[in-house]
Each structure stands twice: as C-alpha cells, then as structure tokens.
Amino acid sequence: LAAPAALAAPGDLDPTFAGGAGTERFYLSEEKIFLGAVATQPDDKIVLAGSEDPGSLIVVRLLADGKFDPSFGVDGKVTTPFPGTGNFGGADAVAIQPDGKIVVAGSAKGAGESDFLVARYEPNGAPDPTFGGGDGIEIFPVGTKQDQARAIALGAGGRILVAGDASLPISGEAVGVAVLKPDGKPDPAFSTDGVELVNATGAKETDRGEAIVEQPDGKILIADSTGNGAGNGFTLVRLLAKGGPDPSFDGDGTVNTPMPSATNPGARAASRASPCSPTAGSSPPDTATTKSARP
Question: What is the pTM for the complete model shown?
C-alpha cells in the first residue's frame, strides 16, 4: 500500500505533519505570543521566531512532524528577555547558518525608541557567546529614533545582511540596511560604519525594507515595500558590496514599479537564495504552523 505521504498531491496538507492534520496549533489563547518568521533546517526541523509580551524575543523549534523539539531550549522554546521599564524586543526574520546556528533579526529598546536587533543562537538554543557582546545579541541604531529590522540574509564569508525601516532626522522612514561581520559587529567595509539609509522614493515617506539578498558578486538587492508616489507598487534597490547605490542598476540603483490597481502597496518578497531562506507570516492570537506536501 502507498504511504500516506505518497497519496498527498503537491500543495495538499502534509499527512505526516501534526498527526496527519497538516496543521499544528500551539500556545492557544496566549495573546501575548506572536511568531512572525519561519525557516527550515536541512534536517527538516522548523524554526520560528517572534515576540512574547512583555519584552521578550522567542525562538521555537519543531521537529519535522510538528512536535516541539526537546533538544532545543526548554521544551522546544528559547526566551530572551529585555528587562527594564518600557523595554521590548521581538524578531521578524530568521535564518539558519550552514553550521546550524540560528540568526534572528528584529527590534529592541536601545539608544532610540527602538533599534535594530540581531541575535544568534547555538543549535541547542543557547546564546552564542562569540556573537555581539558575548551574550549573543547585537543592538544598534540605524536611523534617528524608531528602527525595525524586518529581513535577514546570509552573505559570503559569514557576514549577515539585515534590512528594515529606519526613521529619518525630521520625519518619515527610509530603508535601513546593515551588514554585520560574523561576530555580529557592524562591518566597516560596508558604507564605512556598516549601516546605510536608502530613501528610494526621493520623498520622506515610509520606505521599508521587506526582503534582502546578496548576489554572487556581492551586490545587495533589497525589496522596498512602498511605492514611488505613482500608485501602489514596489521598489527594488541594489547596493554595491561596499555600500552606495549601484549605478549599473537602472542608473541610480533603484527601480520603481507602480501598480495602480493593486490594493496592497509594496513588494513582500522572500529570498530563494538557499533552502534555509527565511519566510514570514503571523497568526495572532493563536499560533499555527502548516506544512504542505512536496511535489
């Protein structure tokens, strides 16, 4: 007889996941837990990242069948608190390094109201002592007040690329881009201090980096979720490996594609650079994970 997985058509819910249901729900009625990023490991384990009120970053790992992974953290969950009145932290992107370490990006209270946050964990969920300040965490400003990292990618030589939104000095938001060395420190080979603001629309509106990927030649491609004022659409930005707009990409490193009939402005792209590339989504107040059968 054919195995259940063999009977499932591509795109059907995977009968080998969550006891045959194909969908796993957990942390039911816990409105303070939000998981907005997911990545898969080469062994088919599933890593999710998000936030837990008040003020904690959480990472959860599931086995391939949807059960919590007992070898990760405590019962499959790692919580990283950010103590202090008004402090907060959370992840919006996650990626898996070739050595199995888990890198997440989001925001936390820092010098401004919120700054970029990048954290790295060992394969068992312990904070990586070789990253950041020895606690596995790096928090740094990109703009002037409110910054949030929304996308992450792994680059050549172990460097880490992050994109999101960052506040401009007077008003509005720009795309915030950061390149970190393998130890989590900003890479001075990129834009002198490792960070760059990209105002792709030319107006102080709400540019937002939703996806980022490094090309084989080291150039950095970013999806910007705001249009250029010509209707709903999306913007692609390409930077040189050392920072700055790539003049060979439509002259100024920016391509705007207006889509006047679209109801949701912006590009919400996911990198396809590797089998472990991050994708994102959220399902508050309960958290659900769905797995579909492969072709």
Answer: 0.83
